[in-house]
Structure prediction request, 348 residues.
Amino acid sequence: MDVDGGSTSSDSTGVRTIPIHTGRNRTFYQFTQQSLPACKPVLTPAWVVSIFLLMGFTFVPVGLITLRLSHSVIEIVDRYDAECVPEAFKGNKVSYIKDDSISKNCSRQMKVTKYMKAPIYIYYQLDNFYQNHRRYVKSRSDQQLLHGLKYNHTSSCEPQQSNNGLPIIPCGLIAWSLFNDTYTFVRGGVELRINRKNIAWKSDRDHKFGKQVYPFNFQNGTLIGGGKLDQDVPLSNQEDLIVWMRTAALPSFRKLYGRIEEDLEEDDVIDVKLTNNYNAYSFGGKKKLVISTSSWLGGRNDFLGVACIFIGSSSIVIAIAFILLHVNNPRPYGDTAYISWNRKGTSS
Prediction:
């Protein structure tokens, strides 16, 4: 039997000789026989120390550059969920947010500490909101978002699958809990224009939300979870929804609200007029408004820089430790002479 994919040669007596392997099967044969070329370096102290030093001298500068870029990002954060509750409702914030007869308008001020170059990104931040909860993540229908009423198998959207016997588009808890606070920025009596286009991923707009799918029977129940949608605008153009539907992995997260395409000067005072609609009080959440610039690495995040500096510093310390150990306890026969096949008189 030919088990290696090659052929065998035999003489007239029928004695089997060495298999003859074709070029196509030679590599597979060498792999099965473990005869492929391999590199088996001997890690001498010089090599080990050099590798750790190279890692250290590479990671430390990269970490310092990354950390500097992160600190060059100007960021202003304002928590407003507690301050925008009237004094009479400080002790019962849930009743305030659920009472539609009470105005939810609120005014805040944000002072620019350093010059901020456009584009300036506006984020809303939610804390203690678990978008990664298993039941919450599953409560959606990607096929319905793409095909609308043409797709009827939406059992995964429970408990927001239908209302009054009619399907809900978009269905599911994620869409139902859409964030609906709004912000207006005024500088020196002039309203700053906020660009709210192209805030979602292009791949989501083009391939995950249908261009002919419109909201239907959405937020028509007795219990309203969040924002409403314009029934005359297709889902692919409702970028607030698209941004919200990309669920976060951590309980504290930021989502892009828009962009200010004007530079902000140092000591500028921005008057923020917001509507405090979203109910984060029921689950003990926090709401923050963030305006931030960006670098070519993105927003402000010190983790990557600190991690690179830690890895590089650790590598240098380990290299120094190996050097000291090698100086105090050198190899008796040199770097490689201790190996059995390098010793004279040693049989194979």
The first strand starts at residue 7 and ends at 10. The chain has a mean pLDDT of 87. The CA atoms of residues 52 and 167 lie 61 Å apart. The first helix runs from residue 23 to 32.
